[in-house]
Amino acid sequence: MRVEGTMTAADKIAANTTILILSRLSMVATPGLLAAISFLFWLYLNGIAADASAAVGTATKLETRVTVLEGNEATGREDRIRYQDQVLAQLIKLTDKVDNQAGQIAMLTATIETLKGRPR
């Protein structure tokens, strides 16, 4: 007859052996698991570092492009202003020539009118 609260010698040995095996396995597996977790964390950090490095490279390229675009914009603005000044100068010359021709035409018209009124 067996009492619930008491363990036999075989039960004690079996319980101790199971606990002993589990403890030995955990002692062997723990460093491996810690190494695997550390390795995965290291890979994660390297991925973040690679992404950060790529972002810095892209930012550098963009900064160079923006600098070039700003330089082109300034050069384009200067060229446009210079062109507008040239067109304005030519328009002023053209207006002066038209005014001169209008004056000459008026003088010729007056001369013709004067000549028409004279007897031959």
Polypeptide structure, described:
With 120 residues, the chain is mainly α. Helices cover 91% and strands 0% of the residues. It is built from one helix and no strands. It is rod-shaped and about 160 Å long. It starts with 8 loop residues before the first helix and ends with a helix.
Residue fraction in strands: under 5%
Helix proportion: over 70%
Through-space gap between termini? 168 Å
Order of helices and strands: H
SS-based class: mainly alpha
Number of helices: 1
Most strands sheet: none
pLDDT under 50 segments (min length 5)?
none
Give the overall shape: rod-shaped
Radius of gyration: 50 Å
Number of strands: 0
Mean pLDDT: 88
Task: Quickly list its features.
single chain; 120 residues
Topology record:
Elements: H1 9-117
Q: How do you describe this structure in short?
A:
This protein has 120 residues and is an all-alpha fold.
